[in-house]
Amino acid sequence: MKIIKKSLKGKIFSFFTAFLLLVIVILYVEVRQGVMIRDEHLIRCAQNGNKEALDKLIRHYYDSIYSYCIHHVQDRHVAEDLCQETFISMLKHIEEYRHYDKFQNYLYVIAGNKCRDFYKKKKPLYLEDVQEQREETGTNEEEILIKELVHTLPGELKEAVILRFYQDLKFRDIADILQITVSLAKYRVKKAVELLREEMERSGI
User: Fold this and answer.
1) In 4, 85, 126, 160, which residue has its Cα 20 to 30 A from 94's Cα atom?
2) With helix as H, strand as E and coil as C, how does the chain read?
């Protein structure tokens, strides 16, 4: 009898777990579709000269793009400039834009290009500049060290880590932004985590 009750409880638990996962998936799909519909509507309005729709698009994505830029350059003033340049570039090409369901990824691609352009022109950092940046961020020493380790990674691995852990993007979106396969996106993140773990152990973090 106890075995039957235990088996029954297990089946009920499995059923509710599967049901909960199904509800989560349905909600996620609905939210994502809602975002796509909203973006498409705002983009079409913006393409027709509606400044209010354009402002809504910029306000909605500004914080995400700014966060992405600051994790790349680790300087708030530079990040603000790159973020603004990203949206200026978007404005120049908004009339040509057609991929309504991938607008966020489109902005990340532009921002990534702006960050790479910045590094090409970047002047060498001096010790006092690094100290000033640390004071501005307000983060603790361990977080600063981890960010510094992230910036020692090869470019393609660093980009994958920033998108995955700092921007909280799914592998599908990372693959779309970097124009690689999902499996390669997963490999890059895994490889980056392995390298970071080794460096953290070596540094005693």
Assistant:
1) 160
2) CHHHHHHHHHHHHHHHHHHHHHHHHHHHHHHHHHHHHHHHHHHHHHHCCCHHHHHHHHHHHHHHHHHHHHHHHCCHHHHHHHHHHHHHHHHHHHHHCCCHHHHHHHHHHHHHHHHHHHHHHCCCCCHHHHHHHHHHHCCCHHHHHHHHHHCCCCHHHHHHHHHHHHCCCCHHHHHHHHCCCHHHHHHHHHHHHHHHHHHHHHHCC
